[in-house]
Amino acid sequence: MLSFVLFVVVVLLVGGVLFLLASVVLGRGETQPPADPGRSPVELPVERAVTADDVRALRMTVTARGYRMAEVDWLLDQLARTLDQRDTEIAGLRAELGARTQQEAPTDPGAALHDGGVDRDA
């Protein structure tokens, strides 16, 4: 019985020493340096507007704890800028369309009713 207890204690001590040695040698598991927040390997087109296919084709770097936060933040910032640009362009086009519609409308709404498009002299 004493030899069994001694065996268990030795196995636990050897396991603990191996664990501590591995922890010191391998570190905390941080194998990649921190990402540069101004640069990302995720590519979006610069010369044209981002399309849904561009977003679907994106692949972000996967690390031990998930995606790299700097890449996700950069991507979300780029998509937000693109949406802002599109919203501004849509608002401008709607304003232009409204201005054209007001120019084409008759200035005297009653004039169209009085004429009725019928020649009364005939």
Describe the model.
- The chain has a domain at 38-105.
- 61% of the residues lie in helices and 3% in strands.
- It has helices spanning 2-26, 52-57, 69-104, 109-115, and strands spanning 62-63, 66-67.
- It has a two-stranded antiparallel sheet with strand order 1-2.
- The chain is rod-shaped, with a radius of gyration of 35 Å.
- The mean pLDDT is 76.
- InterPro entries: DivIVA_domain.
- Residues 96-122 are annotated as: Disordered.
- It comes from Blastococcus saxobsidens.
Helix and strand pattern: HHEEHH
Number of strands: 2
Helix content: 55-70%
Major pleated sheet: 2 strands, antiparallel
Question: Termini distance?
Answer: 128 Å
Order of neighbouring strands in the sheet with most strands: 1-2
Number of helices: 4
How much of the polypeptide forms β-strand, as a percent range? under 5%
Provide the gyration radius in Å: 35 Å
Uncertain spans, ≥5 residues at pLDDT below 50? none
Average pLDDT, all residues: 76
Structural class category: mainly alpha
Label the overall shape: rod-shaped
Protein name: DivIVA domain-containing protein
Region (Disordered): 96-122
Question: What is the gist of this entry?
Answer:
The protein has 122 residues and is mainly alpha-helical. The protein has 4 helices and 2 strands, in the order ααββαα. InterPro entries: DivIVA_domain.
